[in-house]
Specification:
The chain is of the alpha/beta class. The chain has two domains: about 20-165 and about 310-375, Rossmann fold (3-Layer(aba) Sandwich), CATH 3.40.50.2300; about 170-300 and about 380-415, Response regulator (Rossmann fold, 3-Layer(aba) Sandwich), CATH 3.40.50.2300. The chain is built from 13 helices and 16 strands. It has helices at about 25-30, 55-75, 95-105, 120-135, 170-180, 195-210, 235-240, 255-265, 280-285, 310-320, 325-345, 350-355, 415-420; strands at about 20, 40-50, 80-90, 110-115, 140-145, 160-165, 185-195, 215-225, 245-250, 270-275, 295-300, 360, 365-370, 375, 380-385, 405-415. The strands form three sheets. A seven-stranded mixed β-sheet has the order 8-7-9-10-11-15-16, with helices on both faces. A six-stranded mixed β-sheet has the order 1-3-2-4-5-6, with helices on both faces. α3 packs parallel to α4 and α5 runs parallel beside α6. The longest helix has 20 residues, at about 55-75. The two termini are about 30 Å apart.
Length: about 425
């Protein structure tokens, strides 16, 4: 809700743009919220794109965090402290993220969150590790809501990092299990963004399809620059020429939107198995051509049943004028508040100890923050785009995506244990 690599050293502090909460209206409403018992503030730095090609994705994520902060604050806060979300614009740049991380440290903020770009996530994990080693008693915890490179809960795992989204291998395990049952799938084309996350999706798809359906042909495998392709029609032409009946992609943001639009314009008759087909802009880009041809693997969608998040999502969309997408942000914030309450502290070191191994009743059932690697284990849903009930579709599809008249219908609910992967994490604990 969406998705990248590493290897950067700390950069010099640059003049970076810092965004406080959201719009003046949202901030004014937050100030009216009932004060948390005990007073004080627990600040979370939101480090994601708030300008540039992926700004719409970053801004939507920020609104999710703000909405959850308001809900938790109205109930008394986290260990009696009001939560405040402070936005920092990183432009999906690892180096700019390190510049912003320095600003976070200078402002004394002890929690950070980020999701868009595993390249960014890798840089932040290294920065947090270095900071915490050099500054005992001033530790920072990193709450990852969407960067899904498997390395972060394997060889790059860190005690200070917690991931609340299923990693790309977990998602591909679920996707390919479903695909293996469909004998109509014969020719698959892979297209992904050219950075660590895209490479991870590509590798997992190849390995798992080979193991589960060795008869399936991989007829194309493209990697393209992140956020730089303005016209995907040449890629669509290659898919048509290769006779692809199925496309697998981890694309997110504008790269998913423009890919979907090019598929519609090019008349590609293939089914897309995606990680982020329901992300901002994708379905509007494809329109009715998406019906029956866009599938996604997510932790939630608005038409699941039972849907304990329905009222919250409807209220969120009325207030913020954007679809509610990241159930994992809701889970993250609820688990953070619970950890602070259990630790009777907002000290990151104590909260981290309470978070690891935590089992929590989320809106979709029990989830667990696996102690070995800090990877959240949770149910996943495979779903397909169809018309809403109001447009003549299935009666259970009551909610559409971005006013398209199209929504997602559940194909399968996959319990957490079905996507669990072994971990090579050897975590150094304080």
């Amino acid at each position: 809700m969406l998705g990248n690599s590493y290897r950067l050293r700390a950069a010099a502090v640059g003049a970076a743009v810092m965004f406080a909460l959201a719009s003046p209206g949202a901030w004014a409403q937050a100030k009216k919220a009932a004060p948390a018992k005990g007073g004080g503030t627990l600040k979370i730095a939101y480090i994601d794109p708030l300008s540039g090609a992926f700004a719409n994705v970053g801004e939507a994520g920020l609104k999710h965090f703000q909405a959850m902060a308001e809900e938790i604050n109205a109930r008394g806060g986290a260990n009696g402290k009001k939560i405040e979300i402070v936005g920092f614009d990183n432009k999906v740049s690892p180096q700019e993220s390190l510049n912003q991380f320095k600003r976070v440290v200078d402002q004394g903020i002890r929690y950070i969150t980020q999701g868009n770009g595993s390249s960014v996530a890798a840089a932040l994990i290294e920065a947090v590790n270095r900071h915490n080693e050099r500054n005992p008693g001033k530790e920072i915890v990193y709450l990852n809501y969407a960067a899904v490179d498997p390395a972060f809960t394997n060889e790059k795992c860190s005690y200070w990092h917690f991931r609340f989204d299923a990693n790309s291998d977990m998602k591909m395990e679920s996707l390919t299990t479903w695909m293996a049952q469909n004998k109509n799938i014969k020719k698959v084309y892979l297209i992904n963004q050219d950075y660590s996350f895209g490479h991870a999706v590509k590798k997992a798809a190849r390995d798992l399809l080979k193991a589960k359906r060795p008869d399936i042909q991989i007829v194309g495998d493209d990697l393209h620059p992140l956020g730089q392709v303005k016209d995907f029609s040449p890629y669509i032409a290659k898919m048509k020429q290769a006779g692809a009946d199925t496309v697998i992609t981890g694309n997110w943001g504008t790269d998913m939107t423009l890919l979907a639009k090019a598929a519609k314009d090019g008349g590609l008759n293939a089914v897309f198995y995606t990680y982020y087909g329901g992300g901002l802009g994708a379905l509007p880009g494809m329109g009715e051509a998406a019906e029956g041809r866009i599938k996604q693997i997510t932790e939630w969608h608005e038409n699941i049943s039972p849907n304990k998040t329905e009222k919250f999502s409807i209220d969120f969309e009325k207030k913020y004028k954007v679809d509610f997408y990241y159930l994992r942000v809701r889970t993250l914030m609820q688990m953070l508040a619970k950890a602070a309450d259990e630790a009777k502290s907002d000290d990151p070191k104590k909260v981290a100890a309470a978070l690891e191994g935590m089992k929590f009743q989320s809106d979709t059932g029990e989830v667990e923050m696996r102690k070995q690697d800090h990877q959240l284990i949770q149910p996943l849903y495979l779903s397909t785009v169809v018309k809403t009930a109001a447009k003549g579709g299935p009666k259970e599809v009551r909610h559409d995506v971005e006013n398209t008249g199209l929504g997602f219908k559940t194909d399968a609910r996959l319990e957490g244990y079905t996507s669990v992967q072994p971990t090579s994490c050897s975590m150094k604990r304080p």
